[in-house]
């Protein structure tokens, strides 16, 4: 059959229309809806990172208060619910948010990548043969698809390091976070890794916390000028707080020289509990 | 002042949509009073005189209202001057000795037809999918029959200034068409005449947009490239209206 020039050169959609999923899943089928989910999970994750950072400031009060804080997390909900239940619910919620955020990020990146003939495999960003000049895009916005995966890898490292204790080995004492932090971050390569990863995290939040407003359509010209400052403030706060732990351990502010209790998971923990009672 | 500058034009040449393209270099002496497109016209005359193929590029109104003339100039959509379409750019924006790289607007949704001309019909498909608006089409209605707040009219007019040039798509690292679509959705969503079909229109236009273009990550490059300085705020309103359109019970939309 002869194909007319018009047919031959009609611009073909990059994506075929798929059958609609039932409400509310159909929201997630569209890129705008998926970005909305990304923004909502982003809020949850920023909230977690902020609380996590502020909570960890307890290391500056010494091993006993740090022990007490960790114990408080396990006993959230008081006697009403079994010990550790709320903490586990929060962990599942976080894992779910991470999974959604990650899935949306990867699929939307691919969508953008296929929308240009020539684009970066990792960043999905379009390339011009003659180069291009960015005006509004920031370093942070252009590296979201690099800082994101860096955070994901760092998260796995961090869990293996301070939750599961994989490489501290016999030095790792479950239930004594002060000791674990002080021991792990005393190693220069580990501290350097924490610094690098948290710079990536801060960059991610610097763009993300601004981007949330656009993605959700929370927009009022009267307050729009505050968004940039808010995002910078949150990213800066998280950066300063999180960087303080590896840096101050390296400079010796966080150490175990004046530790009142022995380091082990039997008498050590009992001693920490008694110390915590006493304040 | 009538200065003459020497520049080196490095321009994209491509025989047809399927041919591989390449850059071609031409030295040019040009008065700074010439517009950018006049410079290309003069270059084409020289090419013609030498029996070579002239460079294909699009233009129509040459006064910044038809939206056909977009070019990527030195890595910027519509060139270095803000809020200016290619046809309104003048050679005085360049210096003696500059190299000027000219490429077509790029996106998978904008296939090259030849040289610098691209097919921007996906933008038309987005508009088509928006469908009709319900207005009385009998005799001309009385002026001011439908009251519109002045601020709303102004804002709608800001959005309606979009000329559909596609610079936003070209400038976007994701090749997203969010700024264009949000301007088109926005100018109707702000006016009473646009309310009856507001939710179905938003839904349809976003879905056609997403079948051709990429996903917005809020870089803001589109706004910088836009000859009409369409605001990023419209993208936020589009995102909000899209999710609302999915959730809303349209039978009750008259009740707010
Ligand atoms: C699992 C690792 C992560 C990956 C792979 C990832 C990836 C991404 C990507 C690709 C984007 C889209 C960039 C854009 O639209 O410009 C994004 C947005 C965002 N991310 Fe992440 N991210 C991760 C973890 C995090 C964490 C831990 C936080 C919180 C501290 C976070 C907060 C945000 C926010 C707030 C946004 C903006 C959402 C929006 O534009 O509406 N992300 N992420
Ligand atoms: S929004 Fe601006 S850049 Fe995009 S098509 Fe309209 S006028 Fe051109
Ligand atoms: S030629 Fe019409 S806008 Fe440039």
Distance between the termini of chain A: 89 Å
SSE sequence of chain A, one letter per element: HHHHHHHHHHH
Seen as an oligomer or otherwise, the chain set is heterodimer
CATH superfamily of chain A: Fumarate reductase/succinate dehydrogenase, transmembrane subunit
Low-confidence stretches of chain B: none
Number of strands of chain B: 7
| % residues in beta strands of chain B | 5-15%
Tell me the number of helical segments of chain B per DSSP (H or I, 4 or more residues long).
8
Morphology call of chain B: elongated
β-strand amount of chain A:
under 5%
CATH class of chain A: Mainly Alpha
- SS-based class of chain A: mainly alpha
**How many domains make up the 3D coordinates of chain A?**
1
Low-confidence regions of chain A: none
For the report, how would you describe the main beta sheet of chain B? 5 strands, mixed
Annotated CATH topology of chain A? 3 helical TM bundles of succinate and fumarate reductases
Question: How would you characterize this protein structure?
Answer:
- The complex is a heterodimer of chains A (279) and B (256).
- Chain A has 279 residues and is mainly α.
- Chain A has a single domain (26-114, 142-278), classed as Up-down Bundle (3 helical TM bundles of succinate and fumarate reductases).
- Chain A has eleven helices and no strands.
- In chain A, α3 packs across α10.
- The longest helix of chain A is centred in the middle third of the chain and has 29 residues, at 85-113.
- The N and C termini of chain A lie far apart (89 Å).
- The model of chain A has no long low-confidence stretch (mean pLDDT 94).
- By secondary structure, chain B is α+β, with helices and mostly antiparallel strands.
- Chain B folds into two domains: 4-114, Roll (Ubiquitin-like (UB roll)), CATH 3.10.20; 120-255, Orthogonal Bundle (Fumarate Reductase Iron-sulfur Protein, Chain B, domain 2), CATH 1.10.1060.10.
- In chain B, the strands form two sheets. Chain B has a five-stranded mixed sheet.
- In chain B, β6 and β7 (117-118) form a beta hairpin.
- The mean pLDDT of chain B is 95.
- Chains A and B meet through α3, α5 and α9 of A and β5, α6, α7 and α8 of B.
- Residues 162-168, 179-180, 183, 225-228, 230 of chain B line the site of iron/sulfur cluster.
- The site of FE2/S2 (inorganic) cluster has 14 residues of chain B, from loops.
């Amino acid at each position: 059959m002869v194909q007319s020039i018009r047919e031959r050169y009609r611009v073909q959609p990059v994506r075929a229309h798929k059958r609609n999923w039932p409400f509310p899943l159909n929201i997630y089928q569209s890129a705008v809806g998926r970005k909305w989910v990304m923004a909502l999970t982003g809020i949850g994750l920023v909230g977690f990172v902020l609380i996590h950072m502020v909570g960890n400031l307890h290391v500056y009060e010494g091993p006993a208060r740090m022990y007490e804080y960790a114990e408080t997390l396990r006993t959230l909900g008081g006697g009403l619910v079994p010990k550790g239940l709320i903490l586990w619910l929060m962990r599942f919620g976080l894992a779910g948010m991470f999974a959604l955020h990650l899935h949306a990020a990867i699929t939307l990146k691919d969508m953008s990548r296929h929308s240009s003939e020539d684009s970066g495999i990792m960043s999905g960003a379009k390339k011009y043969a003659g180069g291009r000049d960015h005006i509004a895009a920031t370093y942070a916005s252009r590296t979201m698809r690099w800082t994101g995966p860096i955070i994901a890898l760092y998260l796995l490292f961090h869990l293996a390091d301070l939750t599961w204790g994989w490489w501290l080995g016999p030095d790792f004492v479950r239930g004594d976070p002060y000791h674990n932090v002080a021991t792990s971050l005393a190693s220069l390569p580990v501290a350097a890794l924490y610094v690098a990863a948290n710079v990536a995290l801060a960059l991610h939040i610097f763009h993300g916390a601004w981007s949330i407003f656009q993605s959700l359509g929370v927009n009022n010209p009267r307050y729009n000028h505050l968004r940039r400052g808010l995002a910078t403030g949150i990213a800066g706060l998280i950066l300063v707080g999180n960087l303080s732990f590896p840096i101050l351990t390296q400079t010796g502010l966080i150490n175990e020289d004046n530790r009142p209790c022995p380091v082990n998971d039997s008498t050590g923990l009992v001693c920490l509990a008694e110390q915590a009672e006493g304040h | 002042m009538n200065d003459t500058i020497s520049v080196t034009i490095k321009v994209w040449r491509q025989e047809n949509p399927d041919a591989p393209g390449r850059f071609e270099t031409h030295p040019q002496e040009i008065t700074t009073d010439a517009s950018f497109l006049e410079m290309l016209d003069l270059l084409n005359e020289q090419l013609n005189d030498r029996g070579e193929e002239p460079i294909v590029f699009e233009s129509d109104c040459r006064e910044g209202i038809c939206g056909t003339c977009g070019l990527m100039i030195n890595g910027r959509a519509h060139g270095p001057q803000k809020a200016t379409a290619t046809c309104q750019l003048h050679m005085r924006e360049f210096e003696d000795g500059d190299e000027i790289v000219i490429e077509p607007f790029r996106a998978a949704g904008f296939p090259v037809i030849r040289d610098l001309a691209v097919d921007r019909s996906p933008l038309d498909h987005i508009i088509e999918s928006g469908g009709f608006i319900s207005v009385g089409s009998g005799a001309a209605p009385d002026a001011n029959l439908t009251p519109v707040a002045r601020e709303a009219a102004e804002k709608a007019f800001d959005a309606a200034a979009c000329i559909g040039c596609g610079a936003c798509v070209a400038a976007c690292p994701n090749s997203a068409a969010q700024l264009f679509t949000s301007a088109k959705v926005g100018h109707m969503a702000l006016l009473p005449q646009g309310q009856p079909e507001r939710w179905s229109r938003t839904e349809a236009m976003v879905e056609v947009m997403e079948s051709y273009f990429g996903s917005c990550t809020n870089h803001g490059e589109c706004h910088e490239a836009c000859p009409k300085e369409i605001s990023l705020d419209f993208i936020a309103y589009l995102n909000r209206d899209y999710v609302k359109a999915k959730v809303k019970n349209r039978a009750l939309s008259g009740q707010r």
